[in-house]
């Protein structure tokens, strides 16, 4: 009697969420994005930057569990990056010093070419609801949450990037990647950070 053949199954981490084969998923995320940014007081979307024919992102999506960040333009993925997060990556940031990366909808509201890290783009955390929640608990919500490169004078290997979550709540990429992101992302661009 012949023994049945056993097949090993291997689990692979999906990193292809926003792709042509996942149009429904993209539509859902874009609907969420529309709801988040339709709130009163939110500025209009960042204008496309077509200076010299240069493309720019109109949305940044971050999937914390996958440590992946996507730059999108008109629903199409332009770039994909492997990221490192705050040293306590699970859960929404609730207070200063908790080591968490925020979750929800924000904007890139300013940039720092003279950062302690190789370039940085500021994420508009805390929003009013973040401030209110922290105040209710008698805490500071913290701030200075950025997308940034490596600490000045250090390389990726020295901080364990991208395999270790080494920031205080920021989203980190390597220096070449932050230079590319710096040129593709305008101030005012929306960013949605998902668990």
Gyration radius from CA atoms, angstroms: 18 Å
Distance between the termini: 50 Å
- SSE arrangement, N to C: HEEEEEHEHEHE
Helical percentage: 10-25%
pLDDT averaged residue by residue: 81
Structural class by SSE content: alpha+beta
Largest sheet: 8 strands, mixed
Strand order of the largest sheet: 3-2-1-8-4-5-6-7
Number of helices: 4
Q: How many strands appear in the DSSP assignment?
A: 8
Which regions contain 5 or more consecutive residues with pLDDT less than 50?
2-21, 38-50
Q: What is this entry, summarized?
A:
The chain has about 200 residues and is an alpha+beta fold. The chain is about 20% helix and about 25% strand.
Report on the architecture of this protein:
The protein has 195 residues and is an alpha+beta fold. The chain is built from 4 helices and 8 strands; from the N terminus they run H-E-E-E-E-E-H-E-H-E-H-E. The longest helix has 15 residues. The chain has an 8-stranded mixed β-sheet. Strand 4 and strand 5 form a beta hairpin. The relative contact order is 0.21. Helices cover 19% and strands 25% of the residues. The N terminus is likely disordered.
Question: What are the defining features of this structure?
Answer:
195 residues; alpha+beta; eight-stranded mixed beta sheet; 4 helices; 8 strands; 19% helix; 25% strand; disordered N terminus
Strand and helix layout:
Blueprint: H1 23-37, E1 57-63, E2 68-73, E3 76-82, E4 104-112, E5 120-123, H2 128-136, E6 146-148, H3 156-159, E7 171-172, H4 175-184, E8 185-194
Parallel strand pairs: 1-8, 6-7
Antiparallel strand pairs: 1-2, 2-3, 4-5, 4-8, 5-6
């Amino acid at each position: 009697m012949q023994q049945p053949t056993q097949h090993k199954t291997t689990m692979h981490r999906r990193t292809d969420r926003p792709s042509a084969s996942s149009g429904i998923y993209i539509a859902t995320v874009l609907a969420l994005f529309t709801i988040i940014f339709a709130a009163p007081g939110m500025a209009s979307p960042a204008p496309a930057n077509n200076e010299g024919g240069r493309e720019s992102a109109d949305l940044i999506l971050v999937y914390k569990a996958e440590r992946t960040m996507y730059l999108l333009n008109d629903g199409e993925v332009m770039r994909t990056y492997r990221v490192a997060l705050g040293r306590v990556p699970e859960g929404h940031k609730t207070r200063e010093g908790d080591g968490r990366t925020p979750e929800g909808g924000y904007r890139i509201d300013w940039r720092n070419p003279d950062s302690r890290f190789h370039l940085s783009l500021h994420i508009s955390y805390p929003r009013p609801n973040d401030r209110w929640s922290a105040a209710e608990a008698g805490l500071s919500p913290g701030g200075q949450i950025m997308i940034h490169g490596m600490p000045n004078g250090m390389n990726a290997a020295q901080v364990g990037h991208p395999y270790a979550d080494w920031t205080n709540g920021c989203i980190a990429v390597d220096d070449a990647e932050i230079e590319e992101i710096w040129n593709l992302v305008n101030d005012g661009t929306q960013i949605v950070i998902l668990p």
